[in-house]
Amino acid sequence: MKFEISRHARNEMNRREIPENLVQTILQNPEQIVDEYGNMKAYQSLIGSETGKNYLVRVIVNDTVEPEKVVTVYKTSKIKKYWR
To answer: Whole-number mean pLDDT of the chain?
Structure first.
């Protein structure tokens, strides 16, 4: 599957220090894909940090366009809120 990363998503990846190779890995092999608001889907996976704490990295994708477009990326410690 081919994905385009929006300018906003790239800015957020840089600001939040989320490497592009991690985003690509999640897009190719997510632990979960969940429906989000509108026509969006969240590709998400649990990631461990150097401190031993787990985070959920969420890649929000508009799958109604071709190629599918990554609109934003973020990590959160609120795993129970988003994990289905």
So the answer is: 94
